[in-house]
Amino acid sequence: MKRISQHNQLTTPNNVCNNLAFHRWLTEGIALEIHKDGNSQGKQVWLIDWNEPSNNEFLVINQLTITHDSPKGKYKRRPDLILYINSIPLVVIELKNATDANATIQGAYNQIQTYQAQIPQLFTYNAFCVVSDGLEAKAGTLSADFSRYMTWKTKTGDTEAHRHEPQLNVLIQGLLNPVTLLDMVRHFIVFEAKKTEDKNGIIIIGNIKKWRHIISIMRLIRQYYQPSERVVKIVMRMTPQKIILVTKKQASFGILKARENPCQWCSIQPKSCLP
């Protein structure tokens, strides 16, 4: 990852911009030029095998210590859980104790915000953040405020989970199922960029963030339109209110094939810090 980061300059002060750049390489591939025997040849490199999920490595690491040197000092933080796919930290999970009255899901969200400020390099690669207090469980994106974190409502995509089912179990078996997570990362993450024009007529692209409203809508659509239909593409018009849904049958989306080749997470204990 360091070699790719140095080559493509994932070092801007804006972590969401870094996240956008990495997400493009993750989902569109990385174009490299290979020089051999005096000849140059272009090659597309993929960090994840999207077509065969079982070819990827899925790891869960508990309490990994991550350090970061900043002008304000040296920080050392240990997120509760980090989910890696092919060594890429795509999901950060913060858990609170349900028996502690002072440990709330809002507190878990606040801790995620602290991680973003103090160990920002972890979130360059982040797709989703998950927070739970043992009773509630929600998932959100890098730039989402707490109100945009959503409860996942189905384990299989066929039916809505029973309302008494622990929310964290539903989220783990639903969103964090390796095949579903790959699907979400590749097809269901959208970024928003604000375009402005200065007094000289120069167009400036800024304030990039993951589109929280659309992500929320997409999650709800995805959960309630399975398995008969699958949301494949969302076309956005001039305003978020004008949305066209283009759907395909589930079989054409490759999910049934994926279910025939299930993937599992492997849990390991950290042995060293991630600089």
Automatic annotation (TrEMBL):
Domain of life: Bacteria
Sample GO molecular function, one term: ATP binding
Pfam family, any one: HSDR_N
Coiled coil (residue ranges): none
Residue span, Restriction endonuclease type I HsdR N-terminal domain: 16-147
EC number from the UniProt entry: 3.1.21.3
Example of a GO biological process term: DNA restriction-modification system
Keyword line: ATP-binding, DNA-binding, Endonuclease, Hydrolase, Nuclease, Nucleotide-binding, Restriction system
Catalytic reaction equation(s): Endonucleolytic cleavage of DNA to give random double-stranded fragments with terminal 5'-phosphates, ATP is simultaneously hydrolyzed
InterPro entries: Restrct_endonuc_type1_HsdR_N (IPR007409), Type-I_R_enzyme_R_subunit (IPR051268)
Family note: Belongs to the HsdR family.
PANTHER family: TYPE I RESTRICTION ENZYME HINDI ENDONUCLEASE SUBUNIT, TYPE I SITE-SPECIFIC DEOXYRIBONUCLEASE PROTEIN SUBUNIT M AND R
Protein name: type I site-specific deoxyribonuclease
